[in-house]
């Protein structure tokens, strides 16, 4: 028994080997995506972080910034199943989750599952669907399951929703419920490319499209998620994430009394959870076995911006969430974490 146990232990990769393998395969996936997508480095990094941490992502940007193409490319690289839903005002929940259909030949009701039963779901222009559709999607995002005719169906694992929305059109759109917005780990604001990047985009369009290789499988991604869960998080990192979240609720306590009138409601505790879990995944991508406060700081705007409910005064003065968060990040001190020998051993 001892020899069998020893042989089995030797076959299992160490934590360091698992982390090195995860970084290598994720870097390969990122390189493959960059063969198609020019620039947008922060967005691509955040998408990989979301995949590792199991969080949904909301992409916001004007038309023509390759949001949809980025998600399509990422799905091709990761393998697994992929579905795209074009959200429209006439969409109904059955179009999303599925329905029960009567079969005259058998005289029975059969369940037809909808497009949400995929590893990667692209919800294109998500703010164009009415409230009933948003409620159906909320159950899937939160519970990873769908109830049809009293029967519960689990969606595939891993399951991620990548949603896009256009910030410049209001006609025919519906504001997303706050409960649903809070389920997104990140809200990424996609900006215009630089002149150099745009020239590279045009140059690539003159060449034949390159075939995309699937370099990851859902099983490998699930294994890498478990590896990310083993990244060490110091208590000071947790306290820093919580301090940033609490500062959005009570800014006057950190000397930001002038910012308080601009915030109607601050971020929920889910923001602290997402910052820490995302920081752990980011540390793995950056080649570390432990998270640092700067990982939290780098992700804070993407985690917090959609969780702030701004007041009418802020809207009247043209104050957006990022402006408020800039003040918060400048004011809340970032701890200088120095791991003790015992903590370094635990992190290793």
Automatic annotation (TrEMBL):
Gene3D superfamilies for the chain: Magnesium chelatase subunit I, C-Terminal domain, P-loop containing nucleotide triphosphate hydrolases
Coiled-coil segments on the chain, per record: none
Pfam families attached to this UniProt entry: AAA_3 (PF07726), AAA_lid_2 (PF17863)
Residue span(s) of domain ChlI/MoxR AAA lid: 259-327
Family matches, as InterPro entries: ATPase_AAA-3, CbbQ/NirQ/NorQ/GpvN, ChlI/MoxR_AAA_lid, P-loop_NTPase
CDD domains for this protein: AAA
Domain ATPase AAA-3: 56-186
Superkingdom classification of source: Bacteria
Designated name of the protein: MoxR family ATPase
Organism for this UniProt entry: Svornostia abyssi
């Amino acid at each position: 028994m001892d020899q069998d146990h020893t042989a089995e232990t030797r076959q299992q990769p160490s934590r360091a080997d698992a982390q090195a393998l995860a970084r290598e395969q994720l870097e390969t996936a990122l390189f493959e995506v960059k063969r198609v997508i020019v620039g947008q480095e922060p967005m691509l990094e955040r998408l990989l972080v979301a995949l590792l941490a199991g969080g949904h992502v909301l992409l916001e940007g004007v038309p023509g910034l390759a949001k949809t193409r980025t998600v399509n490319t990422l799905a091709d690289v990761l393998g697994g199943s992929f579905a795209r839903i074009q959200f429209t005002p006439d969409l109904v929940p059955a179009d999303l989750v599925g329905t029960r259909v009567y079969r005259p030949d058998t005289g029975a009701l059969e369940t037809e599952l909808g497009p949400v039963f995929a590893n990667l779901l692209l919800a294109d222009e998500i703010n164009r669907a009415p409230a009933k559709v948003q409620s159906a999607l909320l159950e899937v995002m939160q519970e990873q399951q769908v109830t049809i005719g009293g029967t519960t169906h689990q969606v595939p694992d891993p399951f991620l929703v990548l949603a896009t929305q256009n910030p410049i059109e209001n006609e025919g759109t519906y504001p997303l419920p706050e409960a649903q917005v809070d389920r997104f780990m990140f809200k990424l604001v996609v900006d215009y490319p630089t002149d150099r990047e745009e020239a590279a985009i045009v140059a690539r369009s003159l060449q034949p499209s390159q075939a995309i290789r699937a370099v990851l499988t859902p099983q490998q991604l699930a294994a890498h998620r478990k590896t990310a869960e083993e990244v060490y998080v110091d208590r000071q990192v947790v306290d820093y994430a919580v301090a940033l979240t609490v500062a959005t609720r009570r800014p006057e306590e950190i000397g930001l009394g002038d910012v308080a009138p601009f915030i109607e409601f601050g971020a929920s505790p889910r923001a602290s959870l997402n910052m820490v879990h995302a920081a752990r995944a980011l540390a793995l991508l950056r080649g570390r076995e432990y998270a640092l406060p700067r990982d939290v700081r780098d992700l804070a705007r993407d985690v917090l911006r959609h969780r702030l409910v701004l007041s009418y005064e802020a809207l009247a003065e043209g104050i957006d969430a990022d402006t408020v968060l800039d003040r918060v990040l400048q004011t809340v001190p970032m701890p200088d974490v120095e791991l003790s020998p015992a903590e370094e051993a635990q992190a290793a």
